[in-house]
Amino acid sequence: MAEADGTRAEAREDAATRRNDDESVFTNSAREWVRFGAIVMVIVGGFSVLEGVMALAAPDTYVTREGTVLAIDLAGWAWLHLVLGALVLLSGLALLRDAMSGRARAAGVTVVGLSAIVQLAWLPAAPIWSIIMIALDVLVLGAIVAVGNQHSAGRL
């Protein structure tokens, strides 16, 4: 009888060890996915800042209608890209610092979502660039939100 209890206890310990090993691998995988998203966020934020600087420095490089894009002058769009790009970059750095931080992930989803909307509105001025930026924004959102679903499901 004592042998059976000892065998059951060992089996439970083995199962718990295997479950903990699986969870640690999964956690590392999830953290790496968020880190990847954070690195892309830093790159997208930097590109957006450069886009804003370019719109301020050389406004004739963008296709506009009478100097406006969606009823906002080009300088307004330039400043919007500068500020939003800086926020995306800072949120990406915050995620790199702590990949599982709920606040950093929420800020990342918010600013990247806004970035995608701004790029959608910017589409007439720079169509190819806007499509590339929207694709990168969607990739980042997928990385951050997918891990959030796993976290809320109790897998992390």
Textual characterization of the structure:
Residues 33-148 form the DUF7144 domain. InterPro entries: DUF7144. Residues 1-21 are annotated as: Disordered. This is DUF7144 domain-containing protein. The protein is mainly α and 156 residues long. The protein has one domain (2-152). Helix content is 81%, strand content 3%. The chain has four helices and two strands. It has helices at residues 2-57, 74-97, 102-122, 127-152; strands at residues 68-69, 72-73. Helix 1 (2-57) runs antiparallel to helix 2, helix 2 runs antiparallel to helix 3 and helix 3 (102-122) runs antiparallel to helix 4 (127-152). The chain is elongated and about 80 Å long. It starts with a helix and ends with a helix.
SSE string: HEEHHH
Number of helices: 4
Number of domains: 1
Mean pLDDT: 79
**Could you tell me the radius of gyration in angstroms?**
22 Å
The count of strands amounts to 2
Please write out the topology.
Layout lengths: L1 H56 L10 E2 L2 E2 H24 L4 H21 L4 H26 L4
Antiparallel strand pairs: 1-2
Briefly, what is this?
The chain is an all-alpha fold and 156 residues long. The chain has four helices and two strands. It has a two-stranded antiparallel sheet.
Key attributes of the depicted protein:
156 residues; mainly alpha; two-stranded antiparallel sheet; 3% strand
